[in-house]
Amino acid sequence: MEIFKNAMIGIIGVAVGVIFLLWVIIAMPSSIIIDYYWENEINSYFELSDQASTLDKKLEYMKQYKQALIDHGLDKGDARYVFKTPQTKLETQMKVLDTLIERMESAKKMDTASLEYQQAIKQITTDEYQGFNTCLFGDGYQRQNFWRWVFGYTGCQNGHYSGENSGY
User: Fold this and answer.
1) By percentage, how much of the chain surpasses pLDDT 90?
2) N or C end: fewer C-beta atoms under 10 angstroms in the chain?
């Protein structure tokens, strides 16, 4: 009986080791690759829009961000498998994005020397960009790419992915 018990402990140890090894070999590299594609193909446009100095460039990059989301199928469905709320619906987040783009387009029509324009730009930059939740689109992208969703750290904090060039 003691031999059987020791054999089972050994088998369990080997199984745990194999699972860990598979995680390191498969999940970690796929997580890094998916991070790269998220940043390179989608989220970089949002970051460029946020960093741009002129409203024209902000609007141009924001429209590219929206188109990249659509191109990757992130304009419908839910960002999560569980704990779904109205906020996690990607259609809802696209409507929020549309209002941000509309706000930028309406500010673009204003006289750039006016106080109204300056206040609109300040509000867009400090309130609306900071309040926009890019994480839900990132969650949707991870959901499409199962390995990242299961094994990876999202880096999402306060609605934005943490750190410059963090993979998000």
Assistant:
1) 38
2) N
